[in-house]
Design goal:
Elements lengths: L1 H24 L4 E5 L4 H14 L5 E3 L12 E4 L5 H4 L2 E10 L1 E5 L3 H9 L3 H8 L18 E5 L4 H9 L10 E3 L3 H10 L3 E5 L1 H4 L11 E3 L20 H10 L7 E9 L5 H13 L14 H16 L1
Parallel strand pairs: 1-2, 1-3, 6-7, 6-8
Antiparallel strand pairs: 3-10, 4-10, 5-8, 5-9
Helix pairs in contact: 10-11
Length: 310
């Protein structure tokens, strides 16, 4: 009888011990959410990280009208408010640009792919400007319909602030959903015009605009006209090179960042962030992003290395 009891006891200890070992060797699940136009880039990082770290459980939980109830890493495309910023550490990993885009079959695209857009025309087309001199506005013969985001989001906030406005001042039809829904609206409307990131406008493989879309050139030196040298908006690599090598005008550029709670953060999430710091830069251009400023990136790297060493 005692032998039987000892056998049962040993078997129970073996089960509980095995469970404890499994808990120690299985990494905690990491949940990432935030701005949806960054998901393809982050998904590439996740897959590469999982190759280097088999068994890592990292997933993207799609943002809807609100963020998920629980998440570890948050991707955002505009500077957070101070009240929020105080509770999280931010990794400013890369930058994104915003370009005018139109349905390629539209009269607007055919006209302004050649003429381009000056700062005054951008403000006239995209914004309700109560202080604009109506007598000096240009006549726009090509019909167009502006599409913008309904909810507060990184792209419309950045676009509006660059030109001196608020998101609420953007004219046109407000579309619920994510930035890719603006692209879908343009493809359905032969008069459609909007603004978007290169990653959504261009095909990552061909480096040319997605069929049905036309990126509209702008006055990059802000001299009041668009020259042939500024008509580079048919080639993604040419755009990235120009934006990184020169100080240009009329192209809003903002940082993309990932953040992690300063308190009780998931260790695996910090490990993933460090991996992105060391390995993620080479993927930015492929997905239409600009690299961060070198000094800022080195400061970010040092900050998270110090946090990991605590």
């Amino acid at each position: 009888m005692k032998s039987f009891v000892y056998t049962i006891l040993a078997y129970s200890l073996l089960l509980t011990g095995g469970a404890a070992i499994a808990q120690q060797t299985t990494p905690k699940k990491v949940i990432i959410t935030g701005v949806r136009f960054a998901y393809p880039l982050v998904d590439k990082w996740i897959k590469d990280y999982q190759v280097a770290n088999p068994g890592a459980a990292i997933t993207i939980e799609t943002r809807t009208t609100t963020d998920p109830a629980q998440y570890d890493l948050l991707i955002e495309a505009y500077e957070p408010e101070k009240s929020i910023k105080g509770s999280r550490d931010y990794l400013y990993i890369g930058r994104y640009a915003l370009l005018p885009v139109a349905n390629a079959a539209s009269s607007f695209a055919k006209t302004y792919s050649s003429k381009g857009l000056t700062a005054d025309l951008i403000k006239q087309i995209y914004f309700h400007d109560l202080y604009a001199d109506k007598d000096n506005q240009k006549e726009i013969k090509a019909p167009y319909t502006v599409y913008t985001r309904l909810q507060k989001a990184g792209a419309p906030v950045t676009f509006a602030h660059y030109f001196g406005f608020e998101q609420a001042n953007i004219t046109g039809k407000a579309i619920a959903g994510a930035d890719e829904h603006l692209i879908k609206a343009l493809l359905r409307d032969s008069t459609g015009v909007s603004y978007s990131t290169p990653g959504l406008i261009f095909n990552a493989e061909t480096r040319k605009p997605t069929p049905g879309l036309s990126a509209i050139p702008v006055d990059l030196d802000d001299n009041g006209r668009v020259t042939d040298a500024e008509k580079i908006f048919t080639d993604l690599d040419a755009i990235i090179n120009r934006l990184e090598s020169e100080e240009v005008k009329n192209v809003p550029i903002e940082y993309l960042h990932l953040s992690l709670s300063k308190v009780n953060a998931n260790p695996e999430a910090l490990k993933f962030l460090l991996w992105v710091i060391y390995n993620g830069q080479d993927d930015l251009h492929a997905f239409g992003y600009l690299k961060p400023e070198a000094k800022r990136f080195e400061a970010e790297k040092e900050k998270f290395e110090q946090r990991a060493a605590r």
